[in-house]
């Protein structure tokens, strides 16, 4: 394994190697952070997580992606997960926590992690805490992207996408020059199936029912930071930096 990795490194341009070395040196002085991001769809987690990840040298653990990767790589846990999926079952909490545990061994997770979309239930939170305790660490902060449902509806139902380029618009906040048309190609814009009021309503109901107890669970440990997620992204970034300072 080591030799093939070394051979691969020979092909990496020097500038990339130097950049990565400098990044690691800069990262070595950063404090470790283990963060959970909680918030409904459209609350801005996806905007903030790459900023936090780069600022604190954390790895971003999206459990859905990790499951798919484990299945594709045919790891022992991936094989078990695939069996469950093939039988139409949900992947067990223990399996997901196991996959997170595996991921934490990677060098990119050395300074800590951002977990997004997990834990969704109190049982998952407890299992995650047990696994971290075995590693002698714990969750440092839970960032709660708190936002009013009505604001989310306006944010989400106003989103329009240009399918072939991925350019996105918003009827209120970033409208196209010509309504319903892409600025560059003039091709029609579409709305994602999920970006409708009805779908949002059911997703929000599920979110509140499942996730409020998780926030309560971590509040008892005094590690929840409530962010004003309705503010513009730059202001939310500033809030996050204050909370994590």
From TrEMBL:
GO CC list: cytoplasm; mitochondrion
Adenylate kinase active site lid domain span: 159-194
Keyword annotations from UniProtKB, A to Z: Kinase, Nucleotide-binding, Transferase
Catalytic reaction equation(s): AMP + ATP = 2 ADP
Single GO MF annotation: AMP kinase activity
Family of the protein in this entry: Belongs to the adenylate kinase family.
Record carries keyword Repeat: no
EC code: 2.7.4.3
Annotated function: Catalyzes the reversible transfer of the terminal phosphate group between ATP and AMP. Plays an important role in cellular energy homeostasis and in adenine nucleotide metabolism.
InterPro entries: Adenyl_kin_sub, Adenylat/UMP-CMP_kin, Adenylat_kinase_CS, Adenylate_kinase_lid-dom, P-loop_NTPase
Assembly behavior: Monomer.
CDD domains linked: ADK
Residue span of region Disordered: 168-187
Native organism: Helianthus annuus (Common sunflower)
Pfam hit, one: ADK
Enzyme class: transferase
Gene3D superfamilies: P-loop containing nucleotide triphosphate hydrolases (3.40.50.300)
Name this protein carries in UniProt: adenylate kinase
